[in-house]
């Protein structure tokens, strides 16, 4: 029992494999679910709600892509340069 606890405590805190698994499995499944939901909403005739969902999805995917790419510092600098010149 002591060696299991020691091994768990000594394990590195690397999340690279978790990020890759999420990118390759969860994100496509969520996109498929959102596409089906948009199809159902559009069939009801509520196109405005469907477009709000599309806008939210695009923003969420942009934030997720920014978070997983490691380029947040460069994007933050670019956004600040738009305001400060």
Question: Describe it for me?
Answer:
The protein is mostly helical and 85 residues long. The protein is flat and about 50 Å long. The chain has one domain. It has 4 helices and no strands. The mean pLDDT is 77. The longest helix has 28 residues, at 16-43.
Give a summary of the structure in a few sentences:
Keywords: Membrane, Transmembrane, Transmembrane helix. The protein has one domain.
The 3D shape can be described as flat
Q: What fraction strand? A: under 5%
Structural class of the helix and strand makeup?
mainly alpha
Q: Give the number of DSSP strands.
A: 0
Q: Please tell me the total number of domains.
A: 1
Distance between the termini: 60 Å
Can you count the helices?
A: 4
Estimated radius of gyration: 20 Å
SSE sequence, one letter per element: HHHH
Q: What share of residues is helical?
A: over 70%
Poorly predicted tracts of residues: none
Mean of residue pLDDT values? 77
Strand count, sense and closure of the main sheet? none
Transmembrane segments: 21-41, 53-72
Keywords: Membrane, Transmembrane, Transmembrane helix
């Amino acid at each position: 029992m002591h060696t299991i606890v020691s091994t768990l405590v000594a394990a590195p805190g690397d999340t690279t494999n978790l990020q890759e698994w999420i990118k390759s499995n969860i994100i496509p499944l969520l996109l498929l679910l959102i596409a089906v939901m948009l199809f159902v909403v559009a069939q009801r005739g509520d196109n405005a709600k469907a477009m709000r969902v599309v806008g939210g999805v695009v923003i969420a995917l942009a934030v997720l892509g920014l978070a997983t790419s490691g380029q947040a510092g460069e994007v933050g600098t670019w956004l600040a340069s738009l305001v400060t010149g």
